[in-house]
Amino acid sequence: LTTLRCLLIYTCWTLLFSVRASTAAEPKFETMLAVDLSQSAPGRQGKALAIEQRNVFVSAGDVWSTNPAVLHWQLQPNGAWQLMEFLSRSGATGAYGDTLSTSDLGWLAVGDPGTGNVSGEVHMFRRGGDNQYSWHSTLQSPTPRIDGQFGYVVQLVGDTLYVGAPFEKSPEQPPYSYRGGVHVFELNGTDEWSFVATLRSP
Questions:
Q1: How far is CA 29 from its chain centroid?
Q2: Is 125 exposed, middle or buried (0-12, 13-18, 19+ CB in 10 A)?
Q3: Are 120 and 146 in contact (CB under 8 A)?
């Protein structure tokens, strides 16, 4: 009888925890992030994304797109997601938005490694008082090369921006020796992004 009673108690506790686990609040986060992007924007939505507090940036477009864009979504106080704006640039290629990065200082970096004979660019957007982003500047490689793909990777850390250009080569390297590198930019006192260094092994 004692063994049977223990078995019944164990079974009840197991069922109780199983129900609690299945009805916990964990689906809320996953459901809220499964944003419906069925808007008038290019295909391939979700090829890259960046998150900064209540803002989610989702790139859209492919190699055939004529109007690639970055979709800016914002989580509202009522728990609903609102599409705030499309961030695009004239002349952008289908690679626009292949890589994204944000910082808590209100900056968004959008890589477009396919522009300018695939030498690449990075577009910088800045958050305004209305919590919307506007274009600020376009950065290019200090050592541009055809097919260098500057902007292949972008990473913002505070007021420092790191930009990967995997197919660039330094002038002293032999032809077709694409060693690549990482270019470092910093935000100066006049709110401009200035090149400060290139990280490239010998």
A1: 19
A2: buried
A3: no
Confidence of residue 3 (pLDDT cuts 50, 70, 90): low
Task: Name every residue whose Cβ is closer than 8 Å to that of residue 125 and which is 6 or more positions away in sequence.
Answer: 87, 107, 108, 109, 110, 133, 134, 135, 136
Q: Report strand pairing: 49-52 vs 99-103.
A: unpaired
Higher confidence at residue 28 or residue 43?
43
Angle, vertex CA 108, rays to CA 105 and CA 65, nearest 5: 170
Residues 6 or more apart whose CB falls under 8 angstroms from that of 90 comprise none
| Residue range 29-49, pLDDT digits in tens | 333 344 444 445 667 888 899
- Residue 187 and residue 159 in contact, taking contact as beta carbons nearer than 8 Å: yes
* Of 156, 157, 118, 161, residue with least CA distance to 139: 161
